[in-house]
């Protein structure tokens, strides 16, 4: 399943990049992420909990930043093992940042594969959940830059 989109943030591109690249900042924008541990600057572990339709899922997640080109692109590989279920989540995300006047345009693409019970729910339900998460992420990221001057 591929989910992609774009939105703008009222901040310079280098500041947005540094915010997204800082794991402790990044997790504030993603609903359901907890217990983040930095293994090294490109490897992280966390617990991700979400509700899809009537089911609640909890994953042990590992993230590997596979490419970081400051200030324009971040790629990551995500793997999750659901707790209490048989299955697996794998995903590859690509985030690109471009100058858009005084703002930064954030373009993202997430290619994910779900196996087991979560995968059986169906693409339309999972796509809707992913879009809801994207809207919340964009809203939280924009709000973070609205709270303080863009320069820092």
Computed Rg: 15 Å
Task: Report the total helices.
Answer: 3
Given the helix and strand composition, which structural class is it? alpha+beta
Give the name of the CATH architecture: 2-Layer Sandwich
- CATH topology tier name: Alpha-D-Glucose-1,6-Bisphosphate, Chain A, domain 4
Low-confidence stretches: none
Determine the N-to-C terminus distance. 37 Å
Task: Kindly report the spatial arrangement of strands forming the biggest sheet.
Answer: 1-7-6-5-4-3-2
The ordered string of helix (H) and strand (E) elements is EHHEEEEEEH
Helix content: 10-25%
Q: At the fourth CATH level, what is the homologous superfamily?
A: START domain
Compute the number of strand runs. 7
Number of self-contained structural domains: 1
> Average pLDDT across residues?
89
Morphology call: globular
**Fraction in beta strands:** over 45%
What composes the largest sheet? 7 strands, antiparallel
CATH class: Alpha Beta
What would you say this structure looks like, in words?
The protein is α+β, with helices and mostly antiparallel strands. It has one domain (2-146): Alpha-D-Glucose-1,6-Bisphosphate, Chain A, domain 4 (2-Layer Sandwich), CATH 3.30.530. Helices cover 24% and strands 52% of the residues. The chain contains 3 helices and 7 strands. It has helices at 13-21, 23-26, 123-146, and strands spanning 2-9, 33-40, 43-52, 55-69, 73-82, 87-100, 103-116. A 7-stranded antiparallel beta sheet has the order 1-7-6-5-4-3-2, covered by helices on one side. Strand 4 (55-69) and strand 5 form a beta hairpin. It is globular. 13% of the residues are buried.
